[in-house]
């Protein structure tokens, strides 16, 4: 995930990195810009505090590893993360900076909670626009309670809402992003690929095009992980879980298409509401059959399925996958040549949005 609100910053009493100090000179201008046109002072205040708290809590990973009181498992995971971080810059041509060479021990299971919202009978997200990173389909909060409190007035107005935890994010290189304790319970492949994914956001980010950004980063993480395995003489990454995830996403996207067709019909609200409930129940039933017949009881999506399903809960799906085949086709034109690939991606990013999407569609079709 790449929440888009990290340029606002207030001086911390603790010593900051040179990069952070350099960014401080812009704070008065950014604060004036935001507050002159936005009444959400409380929202930005909590974002400032949350980012400051992270900066204060950062420690160099090498220092954490050298500390004799550090748990042996944590020491091993952090050492692996450092190796992957070096590989990211040397082999994948991703940014070479202090991001993901620092560590933060959180006091909560997620670093952020994102709030998504849609109208009751639409899949068009409520968007939130920020001066630098553009408009995105969510709003982030450093405390779960704050995210849920922000959802309540939207619910009262008839919006569908969904609050989801975020274990890692990128500030697009503005700050030195750390490895977070919320990432430490993952297996090695997910930890490594997340580092690649978030650094890809620092490499390239397009305002107002979440699907482009997330699909690009997802391709980089997957191809990067494949090359990481090959470089260490490891078997190729286990694609079974990834394939299962794609099956799950396909079911969700089918439900989205069904709902889009439904919402285009001239139905009364009561009939629309009933058909909407039926679509979500069918999604639950199809998932249960798939899990029990093909996945041998793998229950990793059970909690999401058991929660309240609505339009907003569907928004995150598809953003990470939509253009991955297109980026794979682009990379296949210059296999192994990351600079050439990034140059082609930058050229795509520079196109007007309609031309960009048409080009991506053509690339995706060529890969089928």
Question: How would you summarize the topology of this molecule?
Answer:
Elements: H1 18-24, H2 27-37, H3 41-57, E1 59-60, H4 61-66, H5 72-90, E2 102-104, E3 112-118, E4 128-130, E5 134-136, E6 139-141, H6 144-156, E7 160-166, E8 179-180, H7 188-203, H8 210-231, H9 240-263, H10 269-293, H11 302-306, H12 311-314, H13 324-332, H14 338-349, H15 353-366
Parallel strand pairs: 2-8
Antiparallel strand pairs: 1-2, 3-6, 3-7, 4-5
Helix pairs in contact: 5-7, 7-8, 8-13, 9-10, 13-15
What do you see in this structure?
There is one protein chain. This protein has 368 residues and is mainly alpha-helical. It folds into 2 domains: 18-207, no CATH class; 240-314. It contains 15 helices and 8 strands. It has a 3-stranded mixed β-sheet with strand order 1-2-8. The protein has a 3-stranded antiparallel β-sheet with strand order 6-3-7. A hairpin with a 3-residue loop joins β4 and β5. α7 (188-203) packs across α8 (210-231). Mean pLDDT is 86; it is low at 1-39. This is Putative aminopeptidase. It comes from Pseudomonas duriflava. Pfam families: Aminopep. Keywords: Aminopeptidase, Hydrolase, Protease.
Across the major sheet, the strand order is: 1-2-8
- Molecular shape: globular
Order of helices and strands: HHHEHHEEEEEHEEHHHHHHHHH
pLDDT < 50 runs, ≥5 residues: 1-39
Classify the beta-strand content into a percent band. Answer: 5-15%
Radius of gyration: 21 Å
Class derived from helix and strand content: mainly alpha
Percent helix among the residues? 55-70%
Please describe the biggest sheet, giving its number of strands, its sense, and whether it closes into a barrel: 3 strands, mixed
- For the secondary structure, the number of strands is 8
State the end-to-end distance: 27 Å
Total domain units? 2
Number of helices: 15
Indicate the mean pLDDT: 86
């Amino acid at each position: 995930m790449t929440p888009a609100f990290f340029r606002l910053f207030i001086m911390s009493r603790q010593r900051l990195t040179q990069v952070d100090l350099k960014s401080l000179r812009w704070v008065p201008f950014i604060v004036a810009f935001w507050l002159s046109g936005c009444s959400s002072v409380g929202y930005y205040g909590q974002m400032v505090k949350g980012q400051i708290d992270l900066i204060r809590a950062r420690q160099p990973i090498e220092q954490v590893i050298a500390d004799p009181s550090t748990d042996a498992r944590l020491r091993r995971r952090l050492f692996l993360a450092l190796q992957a971080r070096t590989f990211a810059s040397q082999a994948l041509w991703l940014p070479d900076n202090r991001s993901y060479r620092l560590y933060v021990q959180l006091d909560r299971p997620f670093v952020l909670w994102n709030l998504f919202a849609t109208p009751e009978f639409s899949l068009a997200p409520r968007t939130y626009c920020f001066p630098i990173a553009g408009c995105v389909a969510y709003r982030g909060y450093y405390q779960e309670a704050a995210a849920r409190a922000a959802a309540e007035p939207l619910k009262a107005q008839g919006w569908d809402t969904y609050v989801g935890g975020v274990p890692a994010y990128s500030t697009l290189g503005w700050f030195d992003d750390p490895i977070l304790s919320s990432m430490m319970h993952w297996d090695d492949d997910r930890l490594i690929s997340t580092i690649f994914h978030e650094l890809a956001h620092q490499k390239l980010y397009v305002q107002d095009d979440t699907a482009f950004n997330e699909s690009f980063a997802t391709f980089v993480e997957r191809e990067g992980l494949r090359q990481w395995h090959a470089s260490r003489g490891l078997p190729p990454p286990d694609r079974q879980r990834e394939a299962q995830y794609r099956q799950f996403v396909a079911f969700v996207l089918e439900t989205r298409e069904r709902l889009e067709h439904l919402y285009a019909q001239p139905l009364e609200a009561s009939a629309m509401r009933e058909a909407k409930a039926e679509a979500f129940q069918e999604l639950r039933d199809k998932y249960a059959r798939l899990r029990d017949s093909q996945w041998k009881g793998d229950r990793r999506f059970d909690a999401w399925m058991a929660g309240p399903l609505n339009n907003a809960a569907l928004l995150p799906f598809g953003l990470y996958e939509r253009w991955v085949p297109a980026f794979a086709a682009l990379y296949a034109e210059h296999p192994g040549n990351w600079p050439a690939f990034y140059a082609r991606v930058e050229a795509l990013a520079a196109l007007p949005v309609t031309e960009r999407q048409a080009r991506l569609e053509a690339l995706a079709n060529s890969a089928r």
